[in-house]
Design a protein that fits this description.
about 180 residues, mainly alpha, two-stranded antiparallel sheet, 5 helices, 5 strands
Length: about 180
Amino acid sequence: DPINPVVFEIKVKKNILKDKLNGIIPPLVTPVNKKGGVCEESVKNLINFVRPFSAALMPTLSSGEGWVLSEKQFTDMIKYTIKYANGLPVFAGVEYKTTKEVIEKALIAKNLGADAIVITTPFGKNITQKEIFEHFKNIKDEVDLPIFIYNEKAISGNDISFTTMKKICALGNIIG
């Protein structure tokens, strides 16, 4: 059987999209120039290449090494993605070690105009499911942007249980 694509609605800064997003949401690599800055022309070219196949764009996630970017690189990558998105929603990846860091970076993404944030668990071993739930709850309460849950273990060292995932989704404003 073919796999059905994820279909969901997203509340964007302008309004609720009339159509459900359906399709590919590519995580974008962060092209860096020889001076260590984000190469705007390369971001533009990358987005132009993936746009025909994309329902939204995800800069600064793990493929874009978001958690190791400087604040300027993080800001520039999101800013350039929004600049060249041409109407595609932008879901900014915000993967950092602590809830405080995620909130700080998520507010930057929100102020730049991101439509949603993509977040994972706090980083570190022995993080409890209760701590994971509180992490998502605090971010939801402080940032007021739709949240796309990224349940990855390779970087954060944690996995969200099914029960915790259901509790997080019950908070509302979780879009995927």
